[in-house]
Amino acid sequence: MNDAMIQCESLGRTYRRGDVEIKPLRNVDLLINKGEFVAMMGPSGSGKTTLLNIIAGIDRPTNGRVLVNGVDIKSLSSARLADWRAKTVGYVFQLYNLIPVLSAYENVEVPLLLKRMSRKARHAAISEAMIRVGIADRSDHYPRQLSGGQEQRVAIARAIVTKPSLLVADEPTGDLDSHAAIEVMELIKQLNTDLGMTVLMVTHDDSIAGHAGRLIHLLDGHVTTADTKIAGRIA
Ligand SMILES: Nc1ncnc2c1ncn2[C@@H]1O[C@H](COP(=O)(O)OP(=O)(O)OP(=O)(O)O)[C@@H](O)[C@H]1O
Ligand SMILES: [Mg+2]
User: Fold this and answer.
1) Ligand 1 atom at minimum distance from 17 CA
2) 235 pLDDT exceeds 70?
3) Looking at domain 37-61+77-226, which CATH architecture does it have?
């Protein structure tokens, strides 16, 4: 059995803007096993979001290989990639990215609209996700009627409603006060421990990174792995 959830081999991404080439990722080698909770840190512009987007199948690498749950995502057509992404990856953003004209319930429903599913099965999945993140009593609220922490919990429910095996989170607490940030971290930790979801999370905050089981750094286009388990302090 293969224990790997994410395998990046010599992964590179080059962007071109006119005559200028930007290479945020040059040579990324990374192995994350199923069930791990990994925090990723690195300076602004070091390519953290770029790497998450490639792993989530939103962006494509220029060089190298990336396997997610055993699938070489570069080999998938755009249509199959969208299908694969919907089944495999949940994505949580810093600024929640909820749709303002939809209620909390309807926001969580969005990923399920791509699936063939009865209304009843959809309702059951949405309710389960909303209960898990503790936001079921806000179903009818619109994003503007929610606090930041509540908005992020709705966004997490939306990310997990399809029961993905991988959750990627890009500074999920970056816009929250410390109290809401800790609640969101506890929630993400529970998804990892209770549901066995593999989590890859970007953060700029040492204390937030301390919640993860392992810390990696992105610097100069590649990943440096810290082997030791972190305990709230990063050397
Ligand atoms: N679509 C794109 N086209 C051109 N350049 C891009 C594109 N996306 C990212 N870049 C460039 O790639 C580099 C890495 O960007 P990225 O967003 O991955 O950094 P980051 O580590 O997430 O930074 P931050 O901590 O500020 O979020 C930056 O120099 C950015 O300008
Ligand atoms: Mg970023």
Assistant:
1) 4
2) no
3) 3-Layer(aba) Sandwich (3.40)
pLDDT digits 0-9 by tens, 126-136: 999 999 999 99
Mutation choice for ligand 1 from 48, 51, 53, 95, CB with most ligand atoms inside 8 A: 48
Q: Domain ranges in the chain?
A: 37-61+77-226
Ligand 1 atom 31, closest CA: 45
User: How many angstroms is it from 128 CA to the middle of ligand 2?
Assistant: 30
Percent of the chain's residues with pLDDT above 70: 95
**How remote is the CA of residue 135 from the centroid of ligand 2, in Å?**
27
3-state secondary structure of 150: helix
Q: Which pTM was predicted?
A: 0.93
Using one digit for the tens of pLDDT, what is the confidence trace for 133-146? 999 999 999 999 99
Tokens standing for residue 113: 């609209």
Nearest CA to ligand 1 atom 28: 45
How remote is the CA of residue 126 from the centroid of ligand 1, in Å? Answer: 33
**Strands (E) located in the chain:** 4-17, 20-33, 37-41, 63-68, 71-72, 89-92, 166-170, 198-202, 214-219, 222-226
Quick one: average pLDDT of 37-59?
96
Tally of CA atoms within 13 A in the half-sphere of 180 that contains its CB: 15
pLDDT of residue 86: 87
